Amino acid sequence: xxxxxxxxxxxxxxxxxxxxxxxxxxxxxxxxxxxxxxxxxxxxxxxxxxxxxxxxxxxxxxxxxxxxxxxxxxxxxxxxxxxxxxxxxxxxxxxxxxxxxxxxxxxxxxxxxxxxxxxxxxxxxxxxxxxxxxxxxxxxxxxxxxx
Length: 147
Known about the structure:
Layout: H1 7-16, E1 20-26, E2 33-35, E3 40-42, E4 47-58, E5 65-70, E6 73-79, E7 82-87, E8 99-104, E9 117-120, E10 133-139
Antiparallel strand pairs: 1-4, 1-8, 2-3, 4-7, 5-6, 7-10, 8-9, 9-10
């Protein structure tokens, strides 16, 4: 008995949803650096792993808050901005800790996605039946530099 063939569904979804260009990179050494020009924190020395068509969507779950210790306070609230990256099944499985950057947005797309970065939370999903590769991510916080 033959299994379920989703190749037609995958081809449709790739042409219908995977409209932007995503870059998966291994983070370099060091902490994110504030870029005065873009107003964003960026990881230095990213080592490209894969680049191709994809899409980024907020996850269906609500973001949470985690407490992080700080010397002057008992805790600091840091939100979790959960997103999912969708890529073709031919894309390699991303590793935890990789940085995902939107490097090109399709015509008519949301330009606020350009150069935004996320951290991969877990290896990309892989399963017996699938049409797209799904990777869980947390947005790199875009706090303004103070001081």
